[in-house]
Amino acid sequence: MLQLPGDSTPRTPHTSSRFSRKALRRTAAAVAVPLLIASAAACGSDDGSDDAKGAPPGVSGSLDKQPKIEKGEGDPPKDLKVKVLKEGDGQKVKKGDALNAHYVGQLWNGKEFDNSWKRKQPATFQLGTGKVIKGWDEALVGKKLGSRVEIVAPPDLAYGKQGQPPTIPGDSTLVFVVDLKKIMPSTIDGKPTDKPQNPDLPKVSTKIEKNKAPSIEMPKGKEEAPDDLISETIIEGDGKEVTDKTKSVTANFTAKLWKGGKQLDDTWAQGGAPQEIPVAQIPGWKDGLKGAKAGSRVVMSVPKSEFPKQQRDRFKSGVVFSVDVVDVK
Q: Basic and acidic residues: which segments have biased composition (predicted)?
């Protein structure tokens, strides 16, 4: 996911989005924790000390349902605590995997600060590569899909002295319960098209890099989007096609204002893992992605007229998107 104006939900590191709060609230973020997120009867404790000072708080609730986490008792632990509450039988998560997971995050005192269950969809984030908090990287790499894992992350493995105001104070110990769902595809697999790119659109690179957004070269001397929505596929995949009935796509995207090429968003910089994004919730996407197939890279120029009236001053020069469609729902 993505952090929206006025939205205090923690997101993957370096996340920031300038689009409507409602529009992207359910996207990756969820992971809402950079990096970062299961039932009362634990199968075991990775740190081997349930009864030690700062033991992980109790957790109740069945797998695949939102867990309830008790508040921590006494002083929080100074070391990472990891407890497998329910071990799954799926493959082990490896470094670099795009893990799709449901999770709840709360402070040691029991105050909840993030909850993918309330957004009604799991989040996807890349593990083991520094894209999430260190506590998640250390706790979840090597765990099996289908597992429910409790994590107690001390400040130095979470957000440190700075915290994530206003929801996470500095020097906070964080508690997560994470349900490991599945490994998601992380890059597109299409091929560049033979035709030249549309001169009315910025030039976008056709190089596919796992952890980096494509470059966008804004046209010189042109600082306003064309009046109409323009969309072009520059890398064409052969997967499922986006239609009028498509509800969401799993995608990475980068976005810039036409005027000055100001960077608005870049999901590659926010965790590296593609997110499930409802196509109707970002201006221009529903029509601009129509006909694109999974595996494709689509460039869209969205004029200010496509945005809600209250946002048009913010996007008055229009926005260009480069969208890598990894999967179509």
A: 65-81
Model-level pTM?
Answer: 0.68
Identify the pLDDT of residue 49. Answer: 46
Q: Which contacts (CB < 8 Å, 24+ apart) does range 16-20 have?
A: 16/265, 16/270, 17/264, 17/265, 18/264, 18/265, 18/314, 19/264, 19/265, 19/282, 19/283, 19/311, 20/281, 20/308, 20/311
In a 13 Å sphere around the CA of 241, the CA atoms on its Cβ side amount to 6
The residue among 88, 89, 80 whose CA lies nearest residue 48 is 80
What is the distance in angstroms between the CA of the first residue and the CA of the last residue of the chain?
Answer: 17
Give the whole-angstrom CA distance, residue 279 versus residue 328. Answer: 10
How far, in Å, CA of 321 to CA of 285, rounded?
Answer: 9
pLDDT in tens, 162-176: 999 999 999 999 999
- Please tell me the predicted confidence (pLDDT) of residue 53: 62
Q: Does domain 21-184 have CATH number 3.10.50.40?
A: yes
Preceding omega of 166 cis (within 30 degrees of 0): yes
CATH architecture for the domain at 191-328 = Roll (3.10)
Distance separating alpha carbons of residues 167 and 252, to the nearest angstrom: 27
191-328 has the same fold as 21-184 = yes
Domain ranges of the chain: 21-184, 191-328
pLDDT at 128: 87
The string of pLDDT tens digits covering residues 259-311 is 999 999 998 887 678 888 899 999 999 999 999 999 999 999 999 999 999 99
Do 320 and 299 meet the contact criterion of CB atoms below 8 Å apart? yes
Determine contact, residues 135/70, Cβ cutoff 8 Å: no
